[in-house]
Amino acid sequence: MNIFRLTGDLSHLAAIIILLLKIWKTRSCAGISGKSQVLFALVFTTRYLDLLTSFISLYNTTMKIIYIGCAYATVYLIYMKFKATYDGNHDTFRVEFLVVPVGGLAFLVNHDFSPLEILWTFSIYLESVAILPQLFMISKTGEAETITTHYLFFLGLYRALYLINWIWRFYFEGFFDMIAIVAGVVQTILYCDFFYLYVTKGESGSNKINPA
Amino acid sequence: ILKKKKKDEL
Predict the structure, then answer these.
(1) Of the candidates A17, A3, A1, A4, the residue with the CA atom closest to the CA atom of residue A155
(2) Contact state of A12 with B10 under an 8 Å Cβ cutoff
(3) A12 - beta bridge partners?
(4) Using alpha carbons only, how large is chain B's radius of gyration in Å?
(5) How high is the pLDDT of residue A18?
(6) Rounded-to-integer distance, Cα A194 and Cα A132, Å
(7) What is the pLDDT of residues A6-29, one digit of tens each?
(8) DSSP bridge partners of A208
(9) For A4-22, what is the HEC assignment?
(10) Measured between beta carbons, which residues in chain A are less than 8 angstroms from residue B3?
(11) B9 in Cβ contact with A5 (< 8 Å)
């Protein structure tokens, strides 16, 4: 474990908690893409099946359970509890255009053709594009609540920190996972546009305007 | 060669 991976995990946890609390406190999921949250729940489900097969550390197990729990809780709040506030008219990204190619790629490009490894690879590829419905929704509505932009900032920061973690592990431990690195680079690049706006817009006004 | 790390990352 190194400081970059730890900070990355905490940033990821912060993002997940920020979103869950935002929906719970405001009792509204306006401006939130339910589709992205479903994709994240799918990412965690397919990646953390090894909870049932191997124990790595208390930290590892605890975080996985928290991630899965919060992901499903968020999906529940969006599609069940606060369904009335779900903005389905703007959450129209065709997720099948993500899931199908990612599923096919996971079969073609993986480290090992075993069910667990293919599901892990699927989750890595899916995570890199899972935020697209949310970014698409924001571009359609033309704005995002400040708290949502903090959520996106920490979510984007987490994988950027993981990229540094992978450089660190390659240099100090000789570890190298090409699939995770390439997907992580793609994932982080998708946030670049948002990062630019997040930083340049600062805290001006209550809503951030993102160009379409 | 690409050394596969054990799945110790989240």
Answers:
(1) A17
(2) yes
(3) none
(4) 8
(5) 98
(6) 12
(7) 999 999 999 999 999 999 999 999
(8) A144
(9) HHHHHHHHHHHHHHHHHHH
(10) 174-176
(11) yes
Q: Go through chain B and tell me how many residues it has.
A: 10
Give me the half-sphere count of Cα atoms (radius 13 Å) on the Cβ side of residue A170: 13
Site of tokens 């992580």:
A184
Residue B2: closest C-alpha in chain A: A176
Chain B CB contacts of A173 below 8 Å: 5
Q: Return the residue matching tokens 């190298």.
A: A176
**pLDDT tens, residue by residue, A107-127:** 999 999 999 999 999 999 999
What's the Cα-to-Cα distance from A33 to each of A6, A94, A106, A133, A134, rounded to whole Å?
27, 12, 25, 6, 5
Contact residues, chain A, for B7 at CB < 8 Å: 50, 54, 56, 120
8 Å CB contact of A60 and B8:
yes
Q: Token pair of A99, please?
A: 């899931």
Pick the closest to residue A114 from A32, A205, A122 (CA basis): A122
